[in-house]
Design brief:
The complex is a heterodimer of chains A (248) and B (265). Chain A has 248 residues and is an all-alpha fold. Chain A is flat, with a radius of gyration of 18 Å. Chain B is α+β, with helices and mostly antiparallel strands and 265 residues long. In chain B, strands 1-8-7-6 form a 4-stranded antiparallel beta sheet, with no helix packed on it. In chain B, strands 2-3-4-5 form a 4-stranded antiparallel beta sheet, with no helix packed on it. The longest helix of chain B is centred in the first third of the chain and has 34 residues. In chain B, helix 5 packs antiparallel against helix 6 and helix 6 runs antiparallel to helix 8. Classes of the chains: A mainly alpha (248), B alpha+beta (265).
Amino acid sequence: MSEPVAIGYFLLFFSFILVLAFRLLGWPRPERVFAWGAMVGNALLVGSLWVLSGHVPVFNLFESFLLAVFMLVVLTLVFTEQGPERLCIRTWIWAEVILLFGILLFYPKTRAPERFYDKDLYVVLFHVGRAAALAVMLSASGFYAEFLRTFRRSASQDDLLHMGRNFLVLGTILFLISEYAGILWCLNGWGDFWRWNYGFLSSAFIMLYLMLVFHLPGRGLVSQRMHSIMGAMNSLVFLGITVSRSAP
Amino acid sequence: MKALGEKLGSLSLTTTTLIILLLWLSGGILLNAAPTFFPGFESMNRTLLSEWLRSPQERIFLKSWFIGLCLCMALLGLNLIFCSWRRFFNLLKKNFSAAKALMLLVHFLFGFVALGHFSGFMFGYRYEDIRLAQGQVFQPAPGHGIKVEKIQMADASRTPGSPGRSPSVFDLNPRQNFAEVSLSEEGKESRRQELSFLTPLRSGAQQVTLRGFTAGSDPKVVLAISNNPTLQFFLILYPLMIAGMGLHLAITWRKNPQRTNSPTP
């Protein structure tokens, strides 16, 4: 474990716990201050990992989750409103950030070793695309979770569903870009674009799950609810598969 | 007949097929983790599936799983054709919109991408783990030759830490560890190139990929030699499909207040 990096991680973890706590207490001003502070701290930690390792910080779970959290926080601060409610989109997203940091407790808090292939464009694009897709899908889950909470209570619930759908489609596009880069990487390194192994089968599983979410039939309230449950679950499916592919 | 067509093109069939596919794929993931079936998956990686299916040594259970997967995909393809057919005429006759036309195009492209993916399993040829020393030739097809002209390995790679162990290609500097390979047709050299990890040689549909080196007094290169006639088609349509989705998302990002909200893109 690299000590300054680990200290940075624990400080960020604590800051995001405070951010969620302030949100749950209904104190938007300290929440905003700590969220911006944690985002800057996160950017500094990701930047230092980049400089120290000499590669884009996406080559182990620690690096890629830190990058995903940074993207998720930026999306949250840009696309969600700073309201006084204790339970809102931001509550769910801060909880997701804490989940990511919680998972990292079980992983070494260190940068990935330097490898000869870590500057290959397709390799980098594959990993960055995955981190970005995870961040965007977690944003979508925040919107869907809030839609489910306010179901039949709020007039703006259709907007929540629409934004959830927008982020999920964007996440799918980023996932597909990452997959395409992975195809080119595999083609250059192994001579074929598909391998019958856990990595490829699990990617196909994510793809089929996304297709299922987008093709649920019906237009009524039940269908909307089903769509939002499946949409909210998507990031957890993606997260579970990502974690299962990276043994601590 | 019309009722059957409607059922085949229905969204309910799409959902059902996707659920079956997800379950089928989960079964495949479990099989892949089982030591009994893992070697079967490895042999699927080594040969074209058209040859693998004919091989009598392979387990019938794994073959059945693969055939089941193909049948589910074929049903999804049928559903795509019927659904797109209906939507295409609806689009022309009644409510034309750029977003709908674009989504239809994305679905067409998806169909062709899936077809290109499947064709890659069935057509052309694939040879993995071909070990050649300097000067040796491999013939993937009659009249075609692949010759290793030169093997360049850094000294450190020739004598790795544990004796007799071949160095992993991931740990070798590609600038210092490479092989020069030439392709020939009917005895005439048609192409020559240095190969290193992640830098294959491509000539038309044929590809020669460096997969590793074997250490020792007579070093060899480990090559994968493949020919996928539909690869270019697949590699062009895939990004077009992504671009179509991106354009559709840009058009529909703002909610249209006149339309009822549909969760599907």
